[in-house]
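Reproducibility note. Readers wishing to regenerate the assembly model reported in the main text can use the exact inputs given here. Chain order matters: entities are listed in the order in which they were concatenated for prediction.
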Amino acid sequence: MTRRVTIADIAAAAGVSKGAVSYALNGRPGVSAATRAKILAIAAEMGFVPNRAARSLSVSSAQAVGIALRRSARTLGIEPYFMELISGIEATLSAGSFGLTLQIVDTVEEELEVYRRWWAERRVDGVLMCDVGTEDRRLDFVADLGLPAVAVGGPIEGARLPAVWHDDAEPCREILGYLHALGHRRIARVAGFAHLLHTGIRDNAYAETAAGLGLESMETFHSDYTGEQGARITRRLLSSAGRPTAVIYDNDVMAVAGLGVAHELGIDVPGRLSIVAWDDSPLCRLTHPALTSLTRDISAYGSQCAEALLSVIGAEPDADRTFSVQCLPAQLSPRASTGPARA
Amino acid sequence: MTRRVTIADIAAAAGVSKGAVSYALNGRPGVSAATRAKILAIAAEMGFVPNRAARSLSVSSAQAVGIALRRSARTLGIEPYFMELISGIEATLSAGSFGLTLQIVDTVEEELEVYRRWWAERRVDGVLMCDVGTEDRRLDFVADLGLPAVAVGGPIEGARLPAVWHDDAEPCREILGYLHALGHRRIARVAGFAHLLHTGIRDNAYAETAAGLGLESMETFHSDYTGEQGARITRRLLSSAGRPTAVIYDNDVMAVAGLGVAHELGIDVPGRLSIVAWDDSPLCRLTHPALTSLTRDISAYGSQCAEALLSVIGAEPDADRTFSVQCLPAQLSPRASTGPARA
DNA sequence: GAACTCGGCTGAACCGGTTCACCGCCGCCG
DNA sequence: CGGCGGCGGTGAACCGGTTCAGCCGAGTTC
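Running the prediction on these inputs yields the following structure tokens for the assembly.
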């Protein structure tokens, strides 16, 4: 285990000062082309890698961003969404040689505390916040802290920080239009957490569109995104009088669970029940019948979030942080789980 | 955005030297109880949080561990395994106030490079290595580097680093014994990557047990863990003459895909086909019929891996790093997807 | 030829902790 | 009363980078 190579070693080997080495390695003016080339060559030869802590201490930046996820291990594990998002984020970050620090928390208080600590320690240069809620304490908290942050979701009214989002209303209209065209008039929806921003946006969009189309019924049931709750709600829905002919799920996991319940009750899909899933993970193509679902490129979404965060981090501290990035809306991918409503 | 509080500020406020503050905050001898209490009170009042970079620079430790995952975004997203593992790791790490740095890579070369860089930069104090292979270059690489590491999987012969693992052979025997008791004689298995260590261990265990039980056939097909391949292999299996009466899958995703194919082909489960999944995620309970699967506490497994790594990090550099931790083997959870073989 | 500019480089301060050598003081012992 | 040991604390060096004031010498200007 040989000692690490430092810029002092390089300086000694090249016969110059530490300062010159620093300028050369960082591509700044202050050294001639010849000296720069010599220093770079020596550095490469000695296998120099700068010490992150030393650099951070000087420039007061961590070259890392953080994500605190407030979801149970079970939800996290089974929802493909987060891993895909993270992998997109990661791709952009590592291209900019930023690291990703991950923490899983239980409560909002804990999450706020993590942000506070990360920022005070300068462990991260910024954070991405998922699961934006309608009344989200975190938004003001990080803004007050001065911690660069980007909200993964939106749009957020009166936001003091950037949001990266896609229009959730448009896909709602697309789904209902599609189901309506197939003759469905009694539609139910198994939604996610009621307090999440995008859930509210979808709630409204469905309600308005349903009214416009003159649907017989369009009820929404909020859940926690788990398969268990998805199954329970579906079971209740399908056992009721005047049961819906189509059910829309706010994530893929619940849709799969719903399909399982339909099988269990001997209800043919799509013969007597159509199923639509929001968020098209590979999971939706594994079932039989394959699930009609809303496709969006979550990984690309993650990349855009990371890009937005990097731009905030790179910007002046007092720069405008209220911009928002709108991504492409999700697109309907019709598959075998939807069909005409039985007369 | 007020300036950060440093120990110099505290020292000034308390009328002592920086050194005294450091001793007081770190609970070391060198200051009297009274002074210590005063310093701690002032630190708390001023909201002091130590700068991570400065501490790292001094003590030459990052207070963070890294994981580089070499799986495609799609596999990562859909396999609950990794997120559960990570959440277990996280729980132990944050209890020890260590951070977790995550990176997703494409190739082994890239992964090795990440380890090299992380260690050279002192960005992490150690790493966890998943997906241990039979011939794994990474093991020697990190050992040569001197980078503290723990292999998530094993046992590894002639290992130069600790491994945390569970016996994969025992569950194999349990599954085959169970299926055999149900009358199954033609069993197939859809396995994971052939180059992974645990795949090989299972391969052998199945082969030996099958021979012992005198099964008619026990074929293994290797795959990449994705639902697509699981489905494709299952389709081929079920269309063949002398098709198996039971199929064992090496992960839950492929098992779900296999169940979908059975539905598609109109083959009743468990009437004409029994299905067993390795790794019991909530996914296995969402399908209909629910999948018989091998349950293990992946989150707890992650915790044990993290603990092992922390102990290696805390140990002397020349301490013995070849210990291995054996966890509880997975347990069979029979559900509705398995039943007696049709005569 | 004196004054002035400017590129190239040096030396030292600095970031915010940790650590170590050392010092003053008090009590105790012979 | 002199010497000794140990407690409580100080001051400075140190970790490995970045950055800035300033210096030197060559070229330009008048």
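We highlight two features of this model. The mean pLDDT of chain A is 93. Chain A has three domains: 7-50, 64-166+299-327, 169-295.
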